[in-house]
User: Fold this.
Amino acid sequence: MKLTGAEIFIECLKREGVKTIFALPGGVVLKIFDMLHQQKDIEVVLTRHEQGAGHMAEGYAKATGKAGVCLVTSGPGMTNVITALADAYMDSVPLVCFSGQVPTSLIGNDAFQEADNIGLSRPCTKYNFLVKDVNELASTIKEAFYIATTGRPGPVLVDIPKDVSMEKAEFNYPNSVSIRGYNPTYDGNKWQIKQAAEAIMKAKKPILYVGGGVIFSGASQELIELAELTQIPVDMTLMGLGAFPGEHPLSMGMLGMHGTYQANMAMHYSDLVIAIGARFDDRVTGKVAEFCPHAKIIHVDIDPTSIRKNIHVDIPIVGDCKAVLRELNQILKATVNGEQKELRKAWWDQIREWERAHPLSYQQETDGPIKPQYVIKRLYELTKDRDPIVSTDVGQHQMWAAQYFKLAKPNRWLTSGGLGTMGFGFPAAMGAQAAFRNRLVLCIAGDGSIQMNMQEMATAVVSKLPVKIIVLNNRFHGMVRQWQDLFYEGRYASSYLDTTPDFVKLAEAYGAVGLRAGKVGDLDGVLKEAIAIEKPVIVDVPTYPYENVYPMIPAGGCNHQMILEDPPELKNKQAGVGQASPKDSDTILTA
Amino acid sequence: MEHIISVTVENKFGVLSRIAGLFSGRGFNIESLSVAPTLDPSMSQMTIVTSGDERIVEQIVKQLNKLIDVIKVVDLNESDFVSRETALIKVHTRQEDRAEALRIADIFRANVIDSTPATYTIEVTGDPKKIEAIINLLQPLGIKELTRTGRVAVAREPLRFSAAQPKKVARE
Ligand SMILES: Cc1cc2nc3c(=O)[nH]c(=O)nc-3n(C[C@H](O)[C@H](O)[C@H](O)COP(=O)(O)OP(=O)(O)OC[C@H]3O[C@@H](n4cnc5c(N)ncnc54)[C@H](O)[C@@H]3O)c2cc1C
Ligand SMILES: Cc1ncc(C[n+]2csc(CCOP(=O)(O)OP(=O)(O)O)c2C)c(N)n1
Ligand SMILES: [Mg+2]
Assistant:
């Protein structure tokens, strides 16, 4: 039987097991929406902005491990979703984005709402397709899902001209895909894995440096086995959080620019760095020339371009984390004995000393302003039994969430690392909530970031996605303010946001619930209340505006040279101003 | 250092822009690029002349391999290869220079493929040095137009997929 392009689209999605898509209509995709409207298998979440649709699909993908799907119209629909595609590309999120295109006969004519979708998305997708013939639609969609979810995952765009969605073709969904130029390597080279095992056996000061690849690969169990078997400490990247249990005695927490003291010191002084599914980002390496000066480096990554891109690697292993770790564990199980413990005793003594010397710290006075770290800590403690999914926006609050919210399992952490997209957190949380209607989904947001996709509150209310947003409201682009205080002599150029909007009223305007925790004593009660509500909630928490994120490795600095607290001149300045909301540095200095 | 990279790609709409985009987006040098279909019409053969230190060239090869439309990448500098380039040179010739132009063409085994009362168009093929040399000699006569193909190259013997260089030859 012949089906229209729009019907073929739906049949393909069903066969890919897609249950939910995030979408916003427009002229050239009306046929597809019309068909979606007449079926029940796929839920359509109507977003209020295409960027929201893209981030929701990302949140869905990160929480489920499956491809997220969004659908946008031509022209402005496409340009609006670009930020989300770029975000997914940087963070390797499997996404299939469908865009509408003007009819094939008009392509290139500057037709109404025409944009060169292929050209626009080329640098921020893993691959993209323009479907020019309805007979190729089904096989193209199959290939799109295959490319998005295999190898190093990433976003794929399928551009569908209006006429292709209306024309008919015989529907045949291929069972398999074969692309001669695309064959990701999953099994690591056995000889190299053996070399790695030998290096691990010999190392006196080994460290595991694990990233997002472990999560994509579903290799947490294998990682835990490796770490426990060899008693090697585990550093996680921002994207790797949850790959290894945060409360595990072998966990050092996050490494990098705002990583823990022990995580960064252990990297710097290590003699063997075992990098697994991590890409040596500059937030982690700091000054490349002085990165891990004493260490041999093993690097396991499915993408050969990640290896030796920034850092020289001694034992490269191209492959999937899970497959490689299985093989490695097998070799190690047969060889590990009591000797390693003896060999590494001094290393562990040193690490525990680092931990004791400079643990993460902040001071919360019971009658003083609320400290942001305290909010995260309480949120963590009040919710950890419910195994929540946690998203963040971008800024200081993101770093505190990474430091204080100790994730026990993978696929619970939704954050924008590579692109650092403010406005990511709320829609991403909604995407995860759409996948898991009954789970607790928290969004830790900044007062700046949340305003970048606030319109999606309408989606949350209408589509019943009861995400709990906790706004750490410091009245600042706090991360920017921190850099200005540390490196720009406290000139607050365009970082002060003032106290508008009233987030409680804003929530209410959308038909959601708004709560505020103004005092330390109120916090627990308000958080508990929020968690119990079955609607979307914004909890506005006014926090101390001048708190800074530490440790901090200044950009281009060296990993063992961390700033651990406010420099004295900053402390003095802040002592005078309390919770005032200065318009610029003059106010703060004279206050 | 200069590297000549031979790239076999899908003969599809948009592939050239993916390759060009890769080079410009990542700041890799591209000195010349030539492309034409192969015996199998579903594939095209590109010869890319680029330069960079070892680490950069390794990244270029890997990044090319990563492109889904790229079927095979060979860094020809890893082995022996021959390369050629063709130039078409339109020389302005006054009456008294015409013999000289022909003489120069002859020395370089170049052909005159078109002539008008005031010009010769000379076709010359060779390595870049030879082409530079003939250009230098013709310049005093007055070169009106010059187009060069960019280099094409081929390995001198069938490449063996030897254990020493699997990364460069096969897709990873
Ligand atoms: C304000 C801000 C501050 C930041 N501060 C820090 C910080 O202090 N510390 C920090 O770590 N980051 C920080 N980041 C994030 C940082 O920019 C990078 O996004 C992050 O370090 C990259 O994490 P990753 O190395 O795990 O790589 P990812 O981006 O998660 O990449 C995953 C890697 O694994 C590979 N891979 C994918 N699938 C597989 C598989 N199946 N098998 C094997 N390999 C696979 C991929 O090829 C890739 O190389 C910050 C970001 C922001 C916005
Ligand atoms: C879309 C976008 N624009 C600008 C930036 C630069 N930037 C990084 S953090 C930040 C401030 C974030 O403020 P807020 O959300 O209030 O978080 P805070 O740092 O105060 O916790 C800015 C402007 C960005 N990351 N993303
Ligand atoms: Mg803020």
Remarks:
- The pocket of magnesium ion (ligand 3) is lined by residues A 395, 446-448, 474, 476-478 (CB under 6 Å).
- Strands of chain B lie at 2-10, 32-37, 43-51, 70-75, 81-92, 111-116, 119-126, 143-148, 152-155.
- Chain B has five helices and nine strands.
